[in-house]
Amino acid sequence: MKSKSALLVVDVQREYMEPEPFVTCDGDDLVAKCRTLIDAARAAGVPVVYVQHLDDVPPADPAAASICPEIAPRAGEPVVQKRSPSAFFRTDLERTLKRLGVKTLYACGLATFGCLNATVMCALCKGYDVTVVHDAHGAQALGETAAAQVIAQFERAWTAA
User: Fold this and answer.
1) What are phi and psi of 61, to 5 degrees?
2) 37-49 pLDDT, tens per residue?
């Protein structure tokens, strides 16, 4: 099977976007940016693979862990559930990507400094060609470091990897 690309949408869930959403490097709405990418991928016939983080202790509102409804998966689109930062650790993500013939990943989602980073670094170690879409991943400020600075630091690290 010919190698192809996929869009990997990581942890864009209600619990991380409400009440204070994670923001992109330019302060824009992350969900809207992801929706644009998802629409473009679908139109081009590029598979969209979702990652959903589930905690060992469910939130008080079970719907909080759901993927944001504005970008909800369509029937047949894979949703990989994980319980650790990397979407590759103890999940079927790699098997799903192999079944789809994917070797190139375009990634978006959350959080720049957390699960997205862990997933991207694991993907790189496994030999995937990975591009994190510049304005479609989000962070919050870390201490005195603004979200935009956090994002820039991780983008430099991914480029150097």
Assistant:
1) -105, 105
2) 999 999 999 999 9
